[in-house]
Write a structure and sequence with these properties.
Layout (H helix, E strand, L loop, with lengths): L2 E4 L24 E7 L4 H5 L6 H10 L1 E3 L2 E2 L6 H9 L5 H4 L9 E5 L5 E5 L10 H7 L4 E5 L9 E2 L5 E2 L30 H4 L2 H4 L2 E3 L15 H5 L8 E5 L26 H18 L1 H6 E7 L10 H4 L16 H5 L32 E5 L6 E3 L3 E2 H11 L5 E2 L3 E3 L71 E4 L4 E5 L3 E12 L11 E15 L1 E4 L3 E5 L8 E2 L4 E4 L5 E10 L1 E9 L2 E12 L1
Parallel strand pairs: 2-11, 2-12, 3-14, 4-15, 7-10, 7-11, 16-17, 18-28
Antiparallel strand pairs: 1-28, 3-13, 5-6, 8-9, 12-13, 19-20, 20-21, 21-26, 22-25, 23-27, 24-26, 27-28
Length: 604
Amino acid sequence: MAVTVTLATLVVASCAAQPHGDRRGQPPIGHVWTIILENKSYEATFTGLNRNDYLWKTLPSYGLLLRQYYGTGHFSLDNYISLVGGQAPTPDNQDDCPRYKDVQPGSPSADGQVNASTGCVYPATVATLFNQLDDREISWKVYAQDMGNTPSREDAYRCGIPGSPAGAGVPDPGGATARDQYVPKHNPAPWFHAVIDSPVDCAKVVPLGGLPATVGHPAENSLARDLAREASTPQFSWISPNTCSDAHDATCQGDNLSGDPNNHQGGLYAADLFLEQVIPQIMRSPAFQHDGMIQIIFDEAFPPYKMYGNSIADFTGNTTTSLNTPTDTAQSIVACCNELPGPNTTQPGFHAFGQDTTPGGGIIGAVFISRFIRPGSITDQPYNHYSWLRSMEDLFGVDQGGADGQGHLGYAGAQGLRPFGADVYNNPDGRALPPAPSGVVVYPATASSDDPDNPIVTAVPTLTPPATLTPMPAAPGHPQIAAIGTPFPATLPGTGSGTVTALGPQLDPPSGTPFPVEQTRATITIRTSAVTGGLALRAGDVTVRDDQGTDIPLVPVGPATVTSSPAQPADLVLSGTFHTGAAQVTWRAHGAVIAIWTFAVELD
């Protein structure tokens, strides 16, 4: 009888989600987390130009890279409105709404659009994805980092709209401060009366760290607390990092998540720090392991498509303020999917950038992770923000109303618009699969067009990224996730630093007897090599959980505590009964998760 041990992603499940009505052939995904980052083109993010290995190398190895995902306009705000409302760009939301006021005249137009020559806040007759989820009794939340840090800047108890009193015509609410790096233009909720006029809905728009109770308002959980139980996890979660953590600000007004108060570097470096904290929290959650999908998307590809050394400062070896990649305006302004300009602009990008000659927000790329998505896969099917909205409506069974009478709002109901299909949900049975090698493939994007009569031609730089991944240090507050066998540099305050690796499982069936069909004894080894101090491992700090969410009891084989020194590595060996399927090893220190290794056991 052959024994095979394979690597597997953390994307494991206990059972299938219950479908939400007519799912139009959708996979049984029951929980979605959408994280929106800012202002980076595909090449800036996914080709190795910048020090963002976690996003461009590690995460695609666990899921799907969408190389032809496009924004719908410039600047930021029009993309957020397109994402949740299907509305095309307007002059004021192309300018990120310099003054918070209602759209005028606000009258209906064709295809579910609204006439909006001025203003940014849509009338109550304009529904959003959030309203559609309410109608389907599907739970949702918007988590906005830093929202409410300065109450005079935004009202955290009314969907985060700018000003105090709320919405009092605050000029230019788009800038961050050292104390409060939240900006309303990166939160989709404040721009629709259908949401902000409902106290029930505004109670679902909360800071990432939650809200304390106050007069007239109960306390609201943080993302981390909501993730603790599947019952408390919203079925749809929108996550807006602050303007440092979303890669918007090249130099952060406040701190990034490095832990160094003197480190204000932003861009993709800061976004990676955010993702390294939030993604493991989500992936460890019962809801994600049951039936979840994580989406990491940008709003727009920011033209004129130049990489400035002094604003990025994280390209390996880059110590100059000169350009490190050539200007390429074409790729930042292209559109896909026969995008329509809408009734209020001739071109969605034109108002923001004079060189824009085509509608759209450019190629941004995206990463999706789910047990229903094959790790390390790629799709070149063009999608945009309207495609995303249509796909979420389909996924959650919204099939009534909208611009097309089938549940699709605005341009999400455009004729011929393709939702996410089998190229995205490419592991339909949801079985655990090994992660792909990370960082060994260059992912060039070439813009394409759905219209053969109007091809899009772009220039794509040829890049050669490093062929190996250098892991970020694992530490309390910065846990790392990888396949078993991957070493991590680790730092434990007050203890020491070194390298930690999980090895195995080493299967150990009784001699002369056949393997059990579904389980066998095996050992896991945690190996430490100290660089400074003494790096200690304790049996009680290591747990293994299978794909049913059940902890596997472990007993030490040898000492229950081992300590490595600079001259002597140490092995902590633990034995347990392992079942066929995926599992994960978690190492904690002082109660905090430091590292997670994933694997699977196959007995045949």
